[in-house]
Amino acid sequence: MKKNQFNVCKTSSSKTVLTPSELKVFFLRFTGYKITHLFPIFIFQRLPQDWTPAGQVDPSEQLELTFALKQQNVDLLEETLRRVSDPDSPQYGKHLSLQEVSSLVRPSALTQKVVHRWLQTHGISNCRTVRTQDFLQCSMTAEVAEALLPGSRFHRYVRDGRSIVRSSSPYSVHDEVHQHLDFVGGLHRVPPKGKDANRKRPRSKAGVHLGVTPAVLRTRYNLTATDVGSAENNSQAVAQFLEQYYHPADLAEFMLMFGGTFQHLSEVDRVVGTQGGGKAGLEASLDVEYIMSTGANISTWVFTNPGRHETQEPFLQWMVLLSNMSDLPWVHTISYGDDEDSLSAAYMTRINTEFMKAGVRGLSLLFASGDSGAGCRHLGKENTFRPSFPASSPYVTTVGGTSFKNPFKVTYEVTDYISGGGFSNVFKMPDYQVSAVEGYLKSVTATLPPQSYFNTSGRAYPDMAALSDNYWVVSNRVPIPWVSGTSASTPVVGGMLSLINGQRLSKGLPALGFLNPRLYKLRGRGLFDVTEGCHLGCLDEKVQGQGFCAAPSWDPVTGWGTPNYPALLDALLSQ
């Protein structure tokens, strides 16, 4: 190795790992400090090139960082989630309160003491915690942050008129502290590029496609005019992270145009966060309008998390909120994701723990599977599929997308070629889906992509699907056709699960909570099986643009299929 040259291990185009000895040289060379005890706590994520540097921040500038403290009893938390979510378990539906979750996972007294003392020795005292005491959000100057986290250098970056503050280099912490932290938020992860709902022109030219509306969805999924919410203790929510906002006037106009055949609400009951000004986002309009027209007449919340400060990570802010609110809607739908390989395993593992905390409380988290099919990652001369997170988390329900076979009629469904799906490269296949996924792999062996493209032992997704093609949306008071994406199918499924929750609650049954263990035991009961079509993959000689294909029963494009509401209601009311 040449003098003053780092032996950098390239793990991907966006991540770099420095060994501890190299980090010490790095810090001595660039900070002037000689560090003897450092431990790198996660992989450094390079900022995407579309974020333009705008200079180093002033040393006196205020930053806000989030410290994820190591939790206790994570294995017990996972076992508790399995028991309360498995319909064959005596503990099924016996969800925990936030206080009980806090007692289970609260960081040890030693962890809290070490982290607080570490912060206090750097003069940091302006911190907020959450009820589970496993997150600290602290304000400090950039100068103090750089001293606290040797190696960090905070710069401002801009993209599409938005400004964020992130560190341009890797950081570390002293080895007596690292064992008490999962990660520090606000240094490297950036908001993904806004993947607003797609505008896809109809692929057929033989006429005008009227598009998907609430009436079309209710016809296809067998919802009647009486299938609306009535339980007072029922609620649902959507979450937005990419500076997306809905406009109340758009929702009112949408319901006036499309909600005339069923009882509904025309206003959101609660906004958690700050609604920005300016134009409404197509994504936000889509989410709110379709969860409220499918889950009609049900109290709806909107979590809007642009981040109060340039160093905040909106998705992480939402997770922190869930750890700090005792009364929450039962169903949450989220159209958000990153490439798995752009995130550190430590970060994703901790986020999975947050999903488990929600699940044991009886909350159902639904994530869109993404709009890139199987995805594609280019590794030199070889390609692999590219799974998305949180879609690949074993602890959420992931929703894929479909299209009508005949784009002009309410017919049976085939795959939507953009529907995200595949196999995690990080998380192993959970027990609840092993039988279903192995059955798929055996039944389509002859037509599977080469195994070098995917991890056959990873968490497979999606779990179910709904129509994701050619929706009508009202945004900025204008009716807009041809809106597509799994950001459409996810709130539709969420609305139907909210209706089912309402029926369960009115009968004295608990909310559905984490749905997957029960969903996979149903083995397709209550769902329309989707057996035609494939989704996108790598555009190369081996797979020629094709990922996976639909098949009878479960498949990694549409999961178990799309809801047949009365049959699914019957299946999920049995206990």
UniProtKB/TrEMBL annotation:
SUPFAM superfamilies: Protease propeptides/inhibitors, Subtilisin-like. The keyword Plastid does not apply. Gene3D superfamilies: Peptidase S8/S53 domain. InterPro entries: Peptidase_S8/S53_dom_sf, S53_propep, Sedolisin_dom, Tripeptidyl-peptidase_I. Its cofactor is Ca(2+). One of its GO terms (biological process) is proteolysis. Its EC number is 3.4.14.9. The keyword Chloroplast does not apply. It comes from Xiphophorus maculatus (Southern platyfish). CDD domains: Peptidases_S53, Pro-peptidase_S53. GO terms for molecular function: metal ion binding; serine-type endopeptidase activity; tripeptidyl-peptidase activity. Pfam families: Pro-kuma_activ. Residues 211-575 form the Peptidase S53 domain. The lineage of its organism: Eukaryota, Metazoa, Chordata, Craniata, Vertebrata. This is Tripeptidyl-peptidase 1. Transmembrane segments: none annotated. It is found in: Lysosome.
